Amino acid sequence: MTESFFVKLEEVISCAVCCKIFKDPVTLHCNHSFCKSCLSQQWEEKGAQECPACKRRASIEKPLVNFTLKNIAESYLMSQKSPPSIETVCRKHQEKPKLFCLDEEKLICVVCQTSKEHAGHQVIPVEEAVLEYKEQLKTALPPLQDKLGKFKKIQFQCNTTVQIMRKQIFETERQIQEEFEKLHQFLRDEEKARIAALRGEEEQKGRIMKEKIEKLTREISSLSDTIRVIEQEMEAEDIFFLQKYKDTQRRYVRCGLSSSLVLY
Questions:
Q1: What positions does the domain RING-type occupy (predicted)?
Q2: What angle do CA 26, 28, 32 make, to 5 degrees?
Q3: How does pLDDT run across 54-102, given as a tens digit for each residue?
Q4: Which domain holds residue 27?
């Protein structure tokens, strides 16, 4: 890709307030996006919840993080980092590691194999170790992908439920207002009380659903990142793959243990 492309991309994923790459970006209804912390600071300083760019009044007090924009910004930052250095020779013997010690789970050279340090250890060629560990990762991927699919399904159900709930609340409020408009003055206090109770119910339910959607979004983002890292590691060179395998293994195990699926 050309340099001009990255310049334009950086403009798109930069906050107009701090002029830096987005960190937890939120998008207002006017389609302008800002860092969550920058927007909160602007609103607090000015005492008005308006868009810093077009000055339109914000329709929501706590806009949600735009995870699509966040992922793009994070991917861009990662692409600008230098790749980690890879040790391609044995530190002790300056030989290219062609073997893998299963007992210590580390790369070794032919000279290391004959040393006392690895006496009696089970040693296999690098190629065999790569195949074995890739098979383990292949086995680990389907459960994570299945869990990701379930989370996305639940997220869709939650979003659908929120829309239905809002329509029901709106219709109920309209009926209540029409009903009380027909009553005499002595019933108007009852009208206000019922509408207030209804709106309180809407706020409570909306808050619960919002928290659930935010949690699901975080879980989906975490699982997507884990799956992407695993797939990238599986495409890496053999030596780099084996050096990073323990970290990758801990990542997918930790991801599998920390995620909890709560059906709506």
A1: 15-55
A2: 85
A3: 988 887 778 888 988 898 888 888 877 655 555 578 888 888 898 999 9
A4: 3-80
Examine the domain organization and report whether 71 and 143 are in the same domain. no
**Model confidence pLDDT, tens digit, residues 172-186:** 999 988 887 777 777
The domain spanning residue 66 has which CATH number? 3.30.40.10
Model pTM above 0.85 = no
Q: What is the pLDDT of residues 97-142, one digit of tens each?
A: 989 999 888 898 988 888 888 888 999 999 999 999 898 888 888 8
E strands present in the chain: 25-27, 33-35, 99-101, 106-108, 123-125
Residues 72 and 143 both lie in one domain: no
Closest CA to 261 of 161, 143, 163, 159: 143
- Asked if residue 115 belongs to a domain, the reply is no
Contacts of 9 (CB under 8 A, 6+ apart): 76
The number of domains in the chain is 2
